[in-house]
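Budget justification aside, the reviewers requested a transparent look at the raw inputs and outputs of the sequence design task funded under Objective 1. We therefore reproduce one unedited record. The lines immediately below are the structure tokens for a 638-residue chain.
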């Protein structure tokens, strides 16, 4: 068709044809007359299996004159165990690939196959049994016992959020563990190490012989990840939700010995009928077995969506006990606090680190028993008088409820800035208390919220810009205290990129440069301060004097380290000094603690990573450590 000048021609995008799979290519080669089907017994319903369906069937292969060549049935010399294949995944002869998808459940069919559609096929992926007449035309009798959709299992993180509204699941890539869902469960959470699990379990061989009956009275109890049930069974249960009923098909390579099934020798396949009654959430908060949270009563809501992951106002009752034989109670809010719960804001260091870490992973009305080591209990926190130094602690905690921080959506500019100032003041208090990680978290929270704030005029823009600069400089001061001087420099750069003449940013960056030994950069920043603002000359001059002193100290140490190295005659061996050299960054410069009138922190000390306080729980827990504890380490919560 001709298109005139200036006309617009609609061009339809070409649909890219999907590349056929290897099995589809094989099926396309089937010639007419090579595969014939006759129904011996009709099946029920109208559903037929397709790709990604597990099919369970018996087969018997006969010659055209009726001689049995091979069979899965025991009456014909087979093992009596039905065959399990997953269409599109298992290796099968092409005649069955084409024929089985035509069958109904319960149907028996006879397939007459030429050699080229069974084991005589060129490049057949299935090896024919020894002495099998693969060059003969044969009859394959197939009884379709069962089939169901068996989706591939997702990654560990994704499978926890899996919609379990499916018929089954391929759990191992080699099809050695496959699950068929009988009754869907409740919620989405699945058990994992080191959860405690209760389940009704019955075990049968592939031919239906019961080897472990469903116990009467109490469900079977086991600790997940402790090899107390066969490996394949545990893999299957690890995909189940509460109250789910399923059949888990497990082949021999996944039938490890265990207290539940001590004898597995000779078993080729076991079908486990499982009803997951309950599991208790047990979390290893640090990954080393020292800080353990064990849920002893379920709460209301879904984990982790209904947990106080963000800084919130929390209300808890708790009982504190020493981990001694007597389980001595040293505090109980219901007794020692006139029955009133403890109220505290998370993220402010108001309770021991281990206590807060675990409460953040609770849902309302949950009760948890927390076992805590000294360094996450009272070694780094004001210790009650009746708690000895270095004591291991148990807390029984009930989360009564929590209030989330105010949502800034829809607030006017003035209200937003007031809320920001409240959070920044909390950060300033934490900074004065030398809780630098927690202070930095408060400043970072406001900076994240500022990404969604849009000032409406020049005046608001000026206020917003000044506040954001102060927050960045607060963060830079925290980094200095934490010994992360390079990050402090990077944070100062965010201010200086927009405002190259920002005096406080120059001063703070200069101090960071000096701390890491970049003396020329430090002198440049301090000299720039003097050029831009003569009133800063006393501070800048004092800082330049410190830089000079630092340079002299470093030079002196280098001379001492290499004393005599260049004083020897040619050919003589000189020994360098063995005294350790303190890195430039290892020096600590101290001034009096003070806070500027605008709430920005002065550079009273510059600690390095070696001298900085122990990295607080917040940096470990939020977001990376906390998500690990959730089993979703690939997620980021803003």
């Amino acid at each position: 068709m001709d298109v005139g000048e200036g006309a617009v021609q609609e061009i339809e995008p070409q649909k890219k044809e999907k590349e056929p799979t290897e099995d589809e290519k094989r099926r396309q080669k089937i010639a007419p007359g090579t595969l014939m089907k006759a129904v011996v017994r009709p099946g029920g319903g109208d559903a037929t299996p397709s790709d990604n369906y597990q099919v369970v069937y018996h087969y018997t292969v006969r010659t055209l004159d009726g001689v049995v060549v091979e069979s899965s049935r025991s009456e014909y010399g087979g093992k009596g165990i039905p065959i399990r294949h997953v269409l599109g995944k298992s290796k099968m002869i092409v005649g069955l690939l084409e024929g089985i998808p035509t069958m109904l459940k319960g149907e028996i069919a006879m397939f007459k196959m030429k050699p080229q559609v069974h084991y005589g096929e060129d490049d057949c992926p299935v090896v024919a049994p020894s002495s099998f007449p693969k060059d003969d035309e044969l009859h394959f009798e197939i009884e379709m016992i069962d089939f169901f959709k068996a989706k591939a299992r997702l990654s560990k993180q994704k499978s926890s959020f899996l919609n379990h509204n499916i018929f089954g699941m391929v759990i191992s890539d080699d099809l050695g563990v496959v699950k068929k869902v009988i009754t869907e469960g409740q919620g989405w959470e699945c058990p994992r190490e080191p959860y405690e699990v209760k389940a009704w379990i019955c075990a049968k061989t592939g031919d239906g012989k019961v080897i472990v009956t469903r116990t009467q009275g109490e469900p079977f109890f086991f600790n997940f990840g402790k090899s107390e049930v066969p490996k394949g069974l545990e893999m299957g249960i690890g995909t189940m939700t509460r109250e789910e009923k399923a059949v888990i098909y497990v082949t021999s390579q996944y039938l490890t010995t265990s207290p539940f099934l001590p004898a597995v020798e000779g078993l080729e396949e076991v079908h486990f009928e499982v009803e997951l009654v309950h599991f208790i959430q047990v979390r290893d908060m640090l990954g080393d077995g020292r800080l353990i949270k064990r849920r002893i009563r379920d709460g209301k809501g879904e984990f982790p969506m209904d947990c106080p992951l963000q800084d919130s106002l929390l209300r808890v009752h708790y009982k504190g006990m020493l981990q001694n034989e007597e389980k001595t109670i040293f505090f109980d809010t219901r007794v020692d606090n006139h029955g009133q719960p403890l109220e505290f804001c998370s993220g402010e260091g108001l309770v021991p680190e281990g206590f807060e870490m675990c409460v953040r992973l609770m849902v309302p009305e949950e009760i948890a028993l927390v076992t805590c080591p000294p360094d996450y209990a009272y070694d780094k926190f004001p210790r009650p008088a009746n708690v000895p130094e270095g004591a291991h602690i148990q807390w029984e905690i009930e989360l009564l409820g929590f209030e989330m921080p105010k949502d800034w959506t829809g607030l006017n500019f003035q209200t937003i800035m007031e809320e920001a100032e409240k959070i920044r003041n909390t950060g300033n208090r934490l900074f004065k208390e030398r809780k630098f990680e927690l202070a930095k978290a408060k400043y970072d929270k406001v900076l994240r919220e500022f990404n969604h704030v849009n000032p409406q005029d020049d005046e608001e823009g000026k206020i917003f810009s000044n506040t954001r600069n102060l927050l960045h400089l607060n963060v830079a001061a925290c980094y200095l205290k934490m010994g992360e001087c390079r990050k402090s420099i990077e944070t100062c750069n965010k201010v200086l990129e927009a405002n190259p003449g920002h005096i406080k940013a120059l001063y703070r960056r200069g101090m960071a440069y000096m701390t890491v030994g970049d003396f020329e950069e430090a002198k440049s920043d301090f000299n720039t301060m003097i050029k831009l603002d003569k009133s800063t000359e006393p501070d800048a001059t004092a800082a330049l004097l410190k830089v000079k002193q630092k340079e002299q100290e470093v030079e002196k140490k280098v001379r001492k380290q290499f004393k005599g190295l260049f004083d020897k005659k040619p050919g003589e061996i000189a020994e360098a000094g063995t005294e350790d050299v303190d890195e430039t960054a290892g020096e600590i410069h101290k001034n009096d603690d003070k806070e500027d009138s605008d709430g920005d922190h002065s550079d009273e000390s510059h600690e390095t990573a070696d001298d900085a306080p122990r990295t607080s729980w917040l940096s470990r827990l939020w977001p990376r450590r906390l998500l690990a504890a959730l089993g979703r380490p690939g997620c980021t919560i803003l």
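The CA atoms of residues 373 and 392 lie 5 Å apart. The mean pLDDT is 85. Computational costs for records of this kind are itemized in the attached budget.
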